[in-house]
Amino acid sequence: MDSELKKKLLIPFLVFVGLLALNANSIINAINQHQTSRVIIASASSVFIIIAFIVVIRSVKKNNNKTF
Fold first, then answer.
1. Structure confidence by residue, pLDDT tens digits, 10-19
2. Transmembrane ranges (predicted)?
3. Where are the domains of the chain?
4. What is the 3-state secondary structure (H, E, C) of the chain?
């Protein structure tokens, strides 16, 4: 059961890590160019991505418990 949960979460994990890497790059570039608004937008986007990942993990765990 645990290995199936890991398989279900592998692709969302990779997607979210990739999005966080893009946001980190965006934040670094915005800091280098002294663009405060871009830093704020990229930071807020990172927070929303983390929240979305938590929601996905909870829903997969909830659905996984229902099926077994």
1. 888 899 999 9
2. 40-60
3. 2-63
4. CHHHHHHHHHHHHHHHHHHHHHHHHHHHHHHHCCCHHHHHHHHHHHHHHHHHHHHHHHHHHHHHHHHC
First to last CA, the chain: 8
The answer to whether 5 and 65 are in contact (CB under 8 A) is no
- pTM for this structure? 0.76
* Other residues' Cβ atoms within 10 Å of the Cβ of residue 6: 9
pLDDT tens for 29-44 read: 999 999 999 999 999 9
